[in-house]
Amino acid sequence: MRPMTGDLLQALGGLGLFLLGMSWMTESLRALSGPALRGALARFTRTPLGGAATGAAATAVLQSSSAVTVTAVGFVGAGLLTFPQALGVIFGANVGTTATGWIVALLGFKMQLGAAALPLVLAGALLRLYGGARAAQAGSVAAGFALLFIGIDAMQAGMAGLEPLLSPADLPGDDLAGRLKLVAFGVALTVVTQSSSAGVATALAALGAGAISLEQAAAMVIGMDVGTTATAALATLGRDVASRRTGLSHVVFNLATGAMAFALLDLFARAAAPMAAAGEAQVALVAFHTGFNVLGVALVLPVAGPFARLVEWLIPDRGPRLTRRLSPALLAEPALAMDAAAGTLEAVAQAQSLWLAHRLDPQPGPRPPAEAAALGEAIAELRGFVDGIVPGAASASASVAPRLAAALHALDHLGRLHYRCAQLEGREGAQAGALSGDARLRTLARALAAAAREQAAGAGAPAGAARLLALIHRRQEGFRTRALTLAAEGRVADAAALAQLDALRWLRRTVYHLHRIEHHLGAMRAGAAPASAGREAARDVLED
Q: Mean pLDDT of all residues in the chain?
């Protein structure tokens, strides 16, 4: 029994090495290609077909469907992709995951690179220890890639030693009940290892050692494909709407594809018999895995639009409209979290501007999407989300940090603008009365409303707000002198004169915040670093 125990431990250790190699490789590839992945998804996903091709290619390169799927979900949350466009990416990622099987079958088993990969582990370790940030990531990719083949060699050797203990006759038979049991085993293996690629590699090793037949391996692979839905479903529990819609789409697609593949098992067994007889059973298995996933994508893409609408109907968005993009799950990906925060910040700023314009100068047209209290809640929620964004790695920090700094400046001014707007309501509503009680103040208030409407329409208002701010600066001393003179002469009540001066200061401060919000939003869009904190603080002291 001891040799058998040793072989079992060797097979399990090989599986562990394979999983470790996959983890190192995918995490490092993800870090190295983050901006490139985001750029590819933004550029090539205009149609479901383009999304599927991009998802398949990106997953094949990154060896991680979760990285691609999370990025696509983040883009939906940030408003950069529609849900139907993201569906193409998600379906394509299923095809991309089968690339690992081809690597294992063609390089791991046919070329047996385990021993040759050992120097690559040393090279990767040296890069991790002595290289810079990107060199260390490249070292992790190299070491992870090498560990795949070392793990495959160990699994293959361990499985070969188990041949007297485990053979096709010891597994469920080739009937409906037996196949369903094998599918269930494949599901369980994927749930335990959290990797369908590791499950496929295990099936290939067992097939190569003669421990299972091709038909049994095919049934297990179907289960492994279906097993990924359990991980996806669990990962979306309690998450935002976009994540739950993605999880449901993944579950439905994989279950439907698995059912189709199960129905095709007999046809596959007959078609693959010549390849199995020629010693190409492992290639036949990965071809089956890729084939039924490609067929599933080809069948679902023409109905991606109706399918997306069905999922949206099943999982409606009932959350606050302004902050629906903010999901705590995105904080694990700083760039995606920044995209979501930027889109939300733009939406809240436009809503606040529209509220201000409508309050100062009501006109026919779009109504504010939220009341003052709801805007305050949205700003508070956005501030909490932005506080959780940590740029992290150097590659992420280079692109996220400048945008994050600009967003923080804009959010600070947005909070103060909201406070100024609140002064038009409730017990402090006398501010509005003072604005309407003087012709010059009414003119300035209408000009402010026009600038706010421009910003709310997305036209931007930095130039208009800057001109209005300069005009107020030029006129405020004369206005102040005249108001106090009229009060001293008894032509205007003292309280009324002071209220007019307060209203003028309110106008100046409100215009200033509107101007700075649009300025910092522009910097955030361009990814430009804001002015120094000292200069910004000095400007704030002068204006506020």
A: 77
Question: Could you tell me the CA-to-CA distances from 388 to 75, 127, 327, 355, 408 in Å, in that order?
Answer: 18, 31, 11, 28, 12
The values of phi and psi at residue 436, to 5°, are -85, -10
Using a pLDDT cut of 90, give the percent of the chain over it.
Answer: 6
Q: What is the DSSP string of 499-533?
A: HHHHHHHHHHHHHHHHHHHHHHHHHHHHTPPPPPH
The answer to whether 142 touches 124, Cβ cutoff 8 Å, is yes
Retrieve residue 62's tokens. 């990154």
Nearest in space to 79 (alpha carbons), one of 329, 324, 343: 343
Residue-wise pLDDT tens digits, 393-444: 545 556 788 889 999 999 999 999 988 888 876 544 555 556 666 778 888 8
Every domain of the chain and the residues it spans: 2-314, 332-543
Do residues 285 and 206 make contact, with C-beta atoms less than 8 angstroms apart?
no
Burial of 129 (0-12, 13-18, 19+ CB in 10 A): exposed
The H or E element that residue 241 is part of is helix 241-263
pTM across the whole model: 0.67
Please compute Rg for the chain using Cα positions.
31
DSSP code at position 107: I
Alpha-carbon distances, residue 434 vs 215, 360, 423, 506 (angstroms): 84, 12, 12, 11
CA pair distance 440, 447, nearest whole angstrom: 11
Angstrom distance (rounded) from CA 59 to CA 65 = 5
